[in-house]
Amino acid sequence: MKSYIKIVLGAIAIGGVCAYFFYKDIKKDVVALTTHENSINLFQVGVFKSVDNAKNYQNNFDYSIIYENSDYYRVIIGVSYHEENKIKLENYFNNKNIKYYIKEIKVNEDFIEKIANYETVMIKTSNDEVIKTINKNMLDLLNGYLT
Hints:
By secondary structure, the protein is of the alpha+beta class. It is about 60% helix and about 20% strand. The protein is built from 5 helices and 4 strands, in the order αβαββαβαα.
């Protein structure tokens, strides 16, 4: 009887160790899939109660859109889906001394598919003009999606 208990306890211990390492390996992927699957990052530079104030502030930027949310008008200057592009846009706006707030919003899979090609090109470039143009195109798509 004692040898049977030793075998069961040994199997539980070995299973526990294997499960720990398996969980450790996939934890990051599982969290990424469950929390950020359909989220995009918006680079917000201002929030206003009045659409006129938002439009006036919008004139301070090369290109931006106004996103109405919860009775507020948000001036958005950038959009990204992939973490790598979020970092590129952070560097781009920081180099221009633009202060921003990153707001995460949920979008549907259709929108993610629409910006996928732009995201792929942005990942591969380091040219500021290309980043600016891609960002403008993605903002145009976002503006169409939000209205």
